[in-house]
Amino acid sequence: MQDFIMTYFDWIRAFHIISVIAWMAGMLYLPRLFVYHASAPIGSEMSETFKIMERRLLQIIIKPAMILTWVLGGLMLYAYWDLFKTTPWMHAKLLLVIIMTGVAHAYIKYVKAFAVDKNKRSAKFFRVLNEVPTVLMIIIVILAVVEPF
After folding, report:
1. DSSP secondary-structure letter at 34?
2. Does residue 52 contact residue 40 with C-beta atoms inside 8 Å?
3. Which range marks the domain in which residue 136 is found?
4. Cα(115)–Cα(42) distance, rounded to whole angstroms?
5. Res 1 pLDDT > 90
6. DSSP-assigned states of every residue in 77-138
7. 31 vs 9, 10, 42, 83, 149, CA distance in Å?
8. CA-CA-CA-CA torsion for 37, 136, 64, 5, nearest 10 degrees?
9. DSSP summary character for residue 1
10. Nearest to 115 by CA among 125, 107, 127, 123
11. What is the spatial distance between Cα 24 and Cα 48, in angstroms, rounded to a whole number?
12. First CA to last CA across the chain, in angstroms?
């Protein structure tokens, strides 16, 4: 397995980066849909359109990209485990990726609530929530590129 990963490491890394970009695109767009959906009257054509958009974004982009990010990242981590197990920046990065995954699961909960017209959150709440993945992404990228500690 290690030989396979090392032989195709650059391809694995490239597809990992592509999957991260897709995941983050969805994570940044979905709460923006929530902002508008929270303001749409229940049962309106607009509300029903947002339900479709949210479900598709989650099922077609966010979930598959998140899973692929974890799988490909896990392969790279496995390949260089002896190095990464002692690097604090990698531990911090992994913690933040776990938190990002938790945010994605919160989004899943909100999509389900909107789908059955049970959203209890305001547009303002979702505007603030929209900033969480951005902040996490910035810190994760800095940790991965700069390796500050």
Report:
1. H
2. no
3. 2-146
4. 10
5. no
6. HHHTHHHHTT-HHHHHHHHHHHHHHHHHHHHHHHHHHHHTT-----HHHHHHHTHHHHHHHH
7. 33, 32, 18, 36, 32
8. 170
9. -
10. 107
11. 24
12. 30
* Number of structural domains the chain divides into: 1
Average pLDDT, the chain: 97
Give helix 9-39 / helix 88-115 axis angle, nearest 10°.
40
What average pLDDT does range 40-46 have in this prediction? 97
pLDDT at 127 (0 to 100): 97
Instruction: Look up tokens 């913690």; give the residue.
Output: 95
Q: Is pTM, for the whole model, over 0.90?
A: yes
Residues 62 and 55: their CA atoms lie apart, in Å, by: 10
Residue 41, both tokens: 């009257």
Q: Would residue 69 be called left, alpha or beta, if left means φ above 0 and alpha means ψ between -120 and 50 degrees?
A: alpha
**Which pLDDT score is estimated for 93?**
97
